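A reminder before we start the practical. When you read a complex entry, don't treat the lines as separate problems. The point of joint prediction is that each chain is placed relative to the others, so the output describes one connected object in space. Small molecules and nucleic acid strands, if listed, are placed in the same frame. In the example below there are two entries. Take a minute to note the order of the lines before looking further.
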Amino acid sequence: MEKLIYLDHAATTYVKPEVFEAMKPYFVEEYGNASSIYSIGRNNRKAVEEARATIARCIGASEPGEIYFTGSGTEADNWAIKGAVYAARKKGGKHIITSAIEHPAVLETCKYLKKEGYDVTFVPVNSEGLVDPADVEKAIRPDTALVSIMYANNEIGTIQPIKAIGEITWKHGVLFHCDAVQAAGSIPIDVKDLGVDLLSISSHKFYGPKGVGVLYIRKGVRLENLIHGGHQERGKRAGTENVAGIVGMAKALELAVANMDQYSKKIRRLRDKAREQILNRIPYVRVNGSMEHRLPGNLNVSFEFIEGESLLLLLDMKGIKASSGSACTSGSLDPSHVLLAIGLPHEIAHGSLRLSFGEANTEEEVDYLVNCLAEIVERLRSMSPLYEDFLKANK
Amino acid sequence: MYSEKVMDHFMNPRNVGEIEDADGVGQVGNPKCGDIMKMYLKIEDGVIVDAKFKTFGCGAAVATSSMATELIKGKTIKEAEQITNKVVMDALDGLPPAKVHCSVLAEEAIAAALQDYRARHGLDTDGEYAGCSGCCGGCGFKHDHGVEEDGE
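Here is the predicted structure of the whole assembly.
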């Protein structure tokens, strides 16, 4: 069988067997509509409500009624942002504050709203990839309707000072949304402690199924609806419930929270080993983003003089699956907006590699990865005119 | 997303390297955009007897450089000038739309190296070479990219 070393857990994870087992009954046997009155429907209603309670408990919500199921993390982000500013419109709110390094689900939503006439402030990050809460406070205006800052960045894994920002938004009476899609399952989330009003998570980032997300809406916060139709999700998000997905998501989050200490220790050890070996063995490498405030499983490095897509293709031939912030992999002419925001020159951003470790990875895989990387980087540099120029200049 | 031929030329690129006493050298592209091609030509009696390249770029950039050097080796200068990006692309069984610009870069690398050859040998040059030195779309010159450009 072809070797498969999966180092792209930030993109998505497999579904854990226990999670899949928990979902199984809801496809063939328990197929009733959760809104129906007969027994197979009622059983599904019960399953959905139990899942809601589990998720509420896992993120520290006050009550299950604050949990709303969506079709994805992206939908949760869209709903939080559009729903909040549309609701604020009547009271004169027309300004949004977000950061320069958000996921496209937030950035593109904000850009869309900008076209609709809203003002958006993109607060910068420092060279470590961290937002300064003081910048958020300075950006607040009387007409600010929402602040939206991610918990952890999807490319460089940096963890933002959400609690400090939450104190600021609370003081100014501004709604605060947090995209916690990358954080959920890797670091603890307590919505009350963080002081957020809205928080998005997505099931497939923590060994749950794809196609299901959650928006936490603090009790008392009013959002305009985006999905109109039936009365599901207490009249706020229409559409027949994805019962199997919801059950799977709750099971996956429950497992993640129960095993978090062990899990984060394990992936942190693998990540640190990979980082150390890469830095020891390969010259002209830089690690992107703070190592102190960072998700345990994330590593993002740039190899000078080479381009990321070539690197990914050659890694793939060795069975290693990873991702890059190069323009060629994003489908645009510019490399990753996150790497540019932390001040990387374009040519170095093009040569970036994101490795995100997970539960099934091993120490041996890290050794193999670093061996392959050393060989591939050398090979690509040997055919790079940039490296040739660099060597000639440093003769 | 890539054809087998593209993958073959990416995995086993032909003619990688430098020619120490090259008769013409051309470099196109820009590190800012993630693609640079440098082409070296050895020319005897108007015939390209050897071609080598170095490329910083994606899989398609490497494959188009490799194929371009293969296509021009043994050709006269006049014949080499007929090697457009479409010829390179067709020889690779096509490229994904987002990668067509890599084949344009290959065409321009050949043109830049030939221009350098003419300049060095005091041959007629048809004016200033206005080849690609920036990002795709950065030169304002309408290339036959073979696809509709995104209005982004």
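Discuss with your neighbour: Strands of chain B lie at 24-30, 35-44, 47-56. What might explain this?
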